[in-house]
């Protein structure tokens, strides 16, 4: 068993005191794994992952990254600590060029390292290279997701955390995004993602957790989870559709 | 003793006129959340309109038309209301800051017109011989002051009761809901905007009425009466009293005017005549600092109902949706 | 009409534009319109004046740099004044604005800035009285440059200074990491934090730039017109109008907006008279709000 990168223990979090949305959820992410967090609408998946990234106030539990406690760290220090987050929506600076979107994320890199790092991203995502001078708001849905991921990867994160990367994309782009994530993992990056699209996510994931009412109810190998009756009853019984995508998940 | 009563009546009359302006501002800001930093302009519009309508004919300028005082007041409210409605229509579909900037501009332009359009406003020397209610009593200052106080108090009371009624009506509830969520108010589109324009116009009319009352109380107006300091004083009155509460608006006005007049008297006693202009600016500094401190430590004022948000964002949104669909 | 209004307009426009940069940055990054910005101008100017006097008292009379009306003391004082104004802005943010911002109601911050504006301006009146004062009472000879236009060496120098400063700020905004962070914060504050931008430090830079440029604009007014406690407050409406005309958040927009308003004011002074000057910015402001509220270079809010 390889080393643990991200260790979340009994996390409690919510926007209003006394009204926790995440109620004691625990997960573990090991090096070079893809871990998927699933759950029905309103299960607190999105709040869970945002709390890890420092965007939702945490009221209990701990978050350890490489053994270091990052529970109380402000959101803007997460990149430096090694956690890069890709939000579900509005995850690019629309009025800035593709290249500036990448550059603005390089705050923690050495100045002379930046051009080479940007070239590496262009090599990994040739589409972005072609559109480097375009305002990011003019990109297609899939390209935006690509830019958001590249922007997160550029700082060599220990773990890449994504909130529903397939949300709002057309089926063609959905498979493209998941192929992209599978490719990124091959290069050794650890990935944690929350998804509504269980089938596609489980297809690329190593392990998965099912979150219900703010707690982790089930853990398993991704490929087995798809056929697990308990999971099917908890969650997969009501197949998620894109139309019913929840707001405050 | 008689002097004291006379001064008391004089003081209270001025304070109540301020209360009326503050009530107008409370409708705009306290109830509806519309930010008016140019209210001195609307007060001036009322004062000049009424003066123009009621003064005897003057060869040097347009009018006066020698109409009854009540017609002057009515005219003041109409013109003030229209000016406010136009301002609102220009800006209420945009972010609230734009309204603030525009009202600020209105005050600047009104001041400019008052100073420079001599044919209309008498220029820097202003307009005199404005008829005073009970002018025949001017020989007996006490009686004159008391009767003026009675008139101003009556008008303020009527405005107060009307506003209390309005704020409890369905109309007032919609305004409150819109106040809580600017984004919703903008996205709800035309109907919501129309509500807010109405509130802004009524508030402007009340301010204009207060300007007219003041003009007829002193019998003389000049551009200097309507400088930004007036806007500032009224804001402090509202914040001290607590935005959202009509009672707070009245009490805050009397309180702040008391502090203002008191510290003014104090400086005139303490400072040599040639230093008084400087001392007066120190008075403004003190009030400015006071405003900031109140905003920092007691943003609800003494009687405010304006709930401080962060946590209420979501709930307010729900109310907005409900009340606007129901209206 | 004489073409002289072009020079007058460019100069007024430079003052407005330098001020409007601060207004537009505060608005787009801190999300409130700062009514105290004009008073930063006035405070910066008085601070510069104080340093000039202090230098004069220490070193005696210093000859001006020919053909300008001022010598090195003013240049040194300007730098000190810019630093002072930036500190003043930072201080006001620390004790007032940042605390109110954290309560989450933008318009309360606007109101506080209105109160602070009153207090700052009256404090100047208390200290220096409302009598106008000057950096130099020397009269400069304006040189004819053709087309009936005359210009003084001071005016040329100040126009050049404006151009350099505007170019500098533009490069800072578009070519440096700090500038990109400022753009990012104004476009999407939540995402800015996620990509590792420290909001507090960007806010500090915003105040420093806004304060320093306000001081320069004020000193320009002081050199070319006069120094009064109300000098900044009177610039407030033109600055807001310029920022909105140019499109909130756009530096080139703020400067262009300032130049347009400056030229319009100078033209109006020739055509209808100086007393109506202040109405020009209001008319332009209303026109923009009705026709194109996002301004020349603006983008629709998300």
The fold-level CATH name of the domain at 4-89 and 158-241 in chain A is: Rossmann fold
Tell me the helix content of chain C. over 70%
Distance between the termini of chain A: 32 Å
Name the CATH architecture of the domain at 4-89 and 158-241 in chain A: 3-Layer(aba) Sandwich
Physical arrangement of strands within the biggest beta sheet of chain C: 1-2
- SSE-based structural type of chain C: mainly alpha
Helix tally of chain C equals 11
CATH architecture of chain C: Orthogonal Bundle
What is the mean pLDDT of chain C? 91
Number of structurally distinct domains of chain C: 1
Biggest sheet of chain A: strands, sense, closure?
Answer: 6 strands, mixed
Q: Biggest interface, which chains?
A: B-C, 47 and 47 residues
Oligomer: heterotrimer
Largest sheet: spatial strand order of chain A: 6-7-8-3-9-10
The succession of helices and strands of chain A, N to C, reads EEEHEEHEHHHHEHEHEEHH
> What is the overall shape of chain C?
globular
CATH topology of chain C: ABC transporter involved in vitamin B12 uptake, BtuC
What is the name of the CATH class of chain C?
A: Mainly Alpha
Major beta-sheet overview of chain C? 2 strands, antiparallel
CATH superfamily of the domain at 4-89 and 158-241 in chain A: P-loop containing nucleotide triphosphate hydrolases
Mean pLDDT of chain A: 87
Condensed summary:
The complex is a heterotrimer of chains A (249), B (327) and C (302). Chain A is α/β, with parallel strands linked by helices.
Write the topology of this structure.
The complex is a heterotrimer of chains A (249), B (327) and C (302).
Chain A: E1 4-13, E2 22-30, E3 34-38, H1 45-52, E4 58-65, E5 68-69, H2 78-81, E6 83-86, H3 98-104, H4 114-124, H5 126-130, H6 141-153, E7 159-163, H7 171-186, E8 190-194, H8 198-204, E9 207-212, E10 215-221, H9 222-225, H10 229-236
Parallel strand pairs in A: 3-8, 3-9, 6-7, 7-8
Antiparallel strand pairs in A: 1-2, 1-4, 4-5, 9-10
Chain B: H1 2-31, H2 39-54, H3 69-91, H4 96-116, H5 118-121, H6 141-168, H7 170-180, H8 182-187, H9 190-218, H10 228-241, H11 246-270, H12 276-297, H13 313-326
Helix pairs in contact in B: 1-6, 1-9, 1-10, 1-11, 2-3, 2-4, 2-9, 3-4, 3-9, 7-9, 7-13, 10-11, 10-12, 11-12
Chain C: H1 4-30, H2 37-59, H3 72-101, H4 106-128, E1 143-144, E2 150-151, H5 153-175, H6 177-187, H7 189-194, H8 199-224, H9 236-246, H10 251-271, H11 277-291
């Amino acid at each position: 068993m390889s080393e643990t990168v991200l260790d979340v223990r009994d996390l409690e979090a919510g926007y209003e005191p006394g009204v926790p949305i995440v109620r004691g959820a625990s997960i573990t992410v090991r090096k070079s794994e893809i871990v998927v967090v699933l759950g029905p609408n309103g299960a607190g998946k999105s709040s869970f992952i945002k709390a890890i990234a420092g965007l939702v106030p945490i009221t209990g539990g701990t978050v350890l990254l490489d053994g270091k406690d990052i529970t109380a760290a402000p959101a803007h220090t997460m990149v430096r600590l090694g956690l890069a987050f890709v939000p579900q929506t509005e995850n690019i600076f629309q009025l800035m060029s593709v290249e500036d979107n990448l550059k603005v994320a390089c705050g923690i890199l050495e100045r002379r390292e930046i051009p080479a790092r940007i070239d590496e991203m262009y090599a990994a995502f040739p589409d972005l290279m072609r559109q480097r001078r375009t305002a990011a708001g003019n990109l297609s849905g899939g390209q935006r997701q690509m830019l958001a991921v590249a922007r997160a990867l550029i700082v060599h994160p220990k773990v890449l955390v994504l909130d529903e990367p397939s949300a709002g994309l057309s089926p063609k782009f959905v498979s493209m995004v998941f192929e992209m994530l599978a490719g990124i993992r091959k290069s050794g990056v650890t990935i944690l993602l929350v998804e509504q699209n269980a089938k596609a996510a489980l297809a690329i994931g190593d392990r998965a957790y099912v979150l219900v009412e703010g707690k982790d109810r089930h853990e398993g190998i991704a490929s087995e989870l798809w056929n697990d009756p308990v999971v099917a009853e908890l969650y997969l019984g009501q197949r998620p559709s894109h139309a019913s995508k929840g707001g405050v998940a | 003793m008689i002097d004291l009563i006379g001064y008391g009546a004089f003081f209270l009359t001025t304070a109540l006129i301020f209360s009326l302006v503050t009530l107008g501002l409370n409708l705009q800001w306290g109830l509806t959340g519309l930010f008016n930093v140019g209210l001195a302009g609307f007060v001036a519009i009322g004062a000049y309109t009424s003066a123009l309508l009621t003064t005897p004919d003057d060869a040097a300028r347009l009018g006066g038309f020698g109409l009854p005082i009540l017609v002057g007041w009515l005219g003041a409210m109409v013109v003030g209301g229209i000016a406010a409605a136009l301002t609102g229509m220009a800006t209420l579909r945009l972010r609230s800051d734009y309204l603030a900037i525009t009202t600020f501009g209105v005050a600047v332009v009104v001041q400019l017109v008052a100073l420079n359009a001599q044919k209309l406003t008498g220029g820097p020397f202003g307009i005199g011989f404005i008829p005073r209610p009970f002018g025949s009593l001017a020989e007996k200052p006490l009686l004159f002051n008391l009767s003026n106080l009675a008139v101003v108090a009556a008008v303020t009371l009527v405005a107060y009761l009307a506003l209390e009624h309005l704020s409890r009506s369905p109309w007032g509830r919609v305004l409150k809901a819109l106040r809580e969520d600017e984004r919703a108010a903008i996205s709800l589109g035309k109907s919501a905007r129309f509500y807010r324009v109405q509130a802004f116009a009524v508030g402007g009319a009340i301010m204009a009425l207060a300007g007219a009352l003041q003009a007829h109380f002193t019998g003389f107006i000049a551009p200097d009466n309507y400088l930004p300091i007036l806007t500032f004083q009224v804001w402090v009155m509202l914040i001290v009293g607590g935005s959202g509460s009509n009672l707070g608006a009245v009490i805050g006005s009397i309180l702040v005017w008391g502090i203002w007049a008191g510290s003014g008297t104090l400086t005139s006693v303490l400072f040599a005549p040639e230093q008084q202009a400087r001392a007066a600016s120190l008075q403004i500094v003190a009030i400015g600092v006071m405003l900031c401190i109140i905003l920092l430590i007691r943003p609800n004022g003494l009687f405010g109902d304006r709930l401080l948000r962060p946590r209420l964002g979501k709930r307010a949104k729900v109310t907005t949706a409900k009340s606007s669909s129901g209206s | 009409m004489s073409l002289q209004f072009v020079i007058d307009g460019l100069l007024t426009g430079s003052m407005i534009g330098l001020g409007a940069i601060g207004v537009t940055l505060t608005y787009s990054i801190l999300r409130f319109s700062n009514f105290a910005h004009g008073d930063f101008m006035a405070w910066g100017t008085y601070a510069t004046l104080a340093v000039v006097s202090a230098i004069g008292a220490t070193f005696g009379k210093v000859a001006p740099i020919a053909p300008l009306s001022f010598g090195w003391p003013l240049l040194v004082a300007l730098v000190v004044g810019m630093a002072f104004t930036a500190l003043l802005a930072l201080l006001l943010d620390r004790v007032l604005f940042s605390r109110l911002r954290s309560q989450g109601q933008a318009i309360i911050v606007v109101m506080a800035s209105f109160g602070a504006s009153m207090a700052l301006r009256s404090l100047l009146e208390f200290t220096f009285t409302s009598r106008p004062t000057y950096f130099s009472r020397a009269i400069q000879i304006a040189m004819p440059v053709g087309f009936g236009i005359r210009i003084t060496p001071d005016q040329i120098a100040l126009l050049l200074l404006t151009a350099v400063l505007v170019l500098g700020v533009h490069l800072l905004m578009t070519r440096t990491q700090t500038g990109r962070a400022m753009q990012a914060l104004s476009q999407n504050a939540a995402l800015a934090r996620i990509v590792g931008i420290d909001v507090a430090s960007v806010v500090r830079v915003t105040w420093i730039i806004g304060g320093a440029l306000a001081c320069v604009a004020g000193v320009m007014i002081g050199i070319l017109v006069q120094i009064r406690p109300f000098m900044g407050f009177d610039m407030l409406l033109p600055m807001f109008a310029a920022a909105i005309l140019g499109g909130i958040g756009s530096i080139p927009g703020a400067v262009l907006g300032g130049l347009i308003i400056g030229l319009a004011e100078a033209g109006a002074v020739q055509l209808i008279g100086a007393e109506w000057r202040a109405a020009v910015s209001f008319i332009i402001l209303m026109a923009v709000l009705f026709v194109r509220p996002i301004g020349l270079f603006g983008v629709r809010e998300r």
